[in-house]
């Protein structure tokens, strides 16, 4: 087990570059199974979840070569299908949430897949129905092996069809798209997710020879092809890191420049922070945040309390609500944070209350934050990271707090943020990793 010890109260200064997007790269790596030719992917973040998936690909028989510090090539020419039925493979899948996206490529190319119930963050129930129902509609048969606790998926030949997804699931849409590109005929997916990361996947598949239209909309049309070829791909910067750094700058009264953010792919994220009163400027493809002693939460036009809620793209990503909640604790004014998409992501607020924050947890989905306007500084404390996003939010709180804080279970943070303490210490933070 590892922990962070944080000395709070230090300002950040300088420039920081966001890592490659975790949520994109997990899809992209799984998609390399759709071809026997080489696919080269750049801007891959060096984080636990991604490294575990890369190692899983090696174990499956995929030839993986590291070309540079953030570039890998994948060649799925000789996949070991027998290994995919082994207990070792299924155990690894159970601890890696992104492994569920192996189903679409495996069924499409090899006609079968096996997967255990994937693990991941403790943020509440995350249904797999969208994945399974979509791939079933393409002609796959699903069976649950109760004795082994695994799903067995088989299909002699996938056939294109029309489907209306019950939810705009990003990973569900990605899985169905990856299955449909090699299906016979035309597949139409309505209520498809349209996040930039899903757009990136579709664009890469088209470069490989797929025929996907409607990219960036919630209506995708996919004409199946016989096979796909190799390509190269560059992963977008991680929008969650960009938002996290905006929050850090505000909470620590810091002047900070976030470099190479792919601003056009940030959607409502900048304006959502502006609603909390945070000043930020777009400078080319960078974001500049000036040092702010105070920031005031906006009200709605009718004077009612500001509500910030997550929603499918182009709404606000749920992965940033934890950060925005922490940022609101030092704002002037009050805000309702409404976490609609997951039921357990707000439970970390008890740790913030222990640090002196004024927060009312209304129910598992809603919290009212009454901002201190810097009149009361958060106190350092001991806490445990329950998931990746709450972990970074607690780190931000600790960086702004008076005194020393300790965050345990930082393996959760490592799953989503590359070498975070070194990068933050380089711009003024005081974070020490303790290995036990």
Automatic annotation (TrEMBL):
Pathway in which this enzyme or protein is active: Cell wall biogenesis; peptidoglycan biosynthesis
Enzyme class: transferase
Catalytic activity reported: phosphoenolpyruvate + UDP-N-acetyl-alpha-D-glucosamine = UDP-N-acetyl-3-O-(1-carboxyvinyl)-alpha-D-glucosamine + phosphate
Residues spanning the signal sequence: none
Pfam families: EPSP_synthase
Domain Enolpyruvate transferase: 7-424
Subcellular location: Cytoplasm
SUPFAM superfamilies the record matches: EPT/RTPC-like
Keywords from the UniProt entry: Cell cycle, Cell division, Cell shape, Cell wall biogenesis/degradation, Cytoplasm, Peptidoglycan synthesis, Transferase
Residue positions binding phosphoenolpyruvate: 22-23
Main location: cytoplasm
Entry annotation: catalytic residues: 121 (proton donor)
EC identifiers of the protein: 2.5.1.7
Residue sites binding UDP-N-acetyl-alpha-D-glucosamine per the record: 97, 319, 341
Role noted for this protein: Cell wall formation. Adds enolpyruvyl to UDP-N-acetylglucosamine.
Protein family membership: Belongs to the EPSP synthase family. MurA subfamily.
PANTHER family, per database record: UDP-N-ACETYLGLUCOSAMINE 1-CARBOXYVINYLTRANSFERASE
Name of protein: UDP-N-acetylglucosamine 1-carboxyvinyltransferase
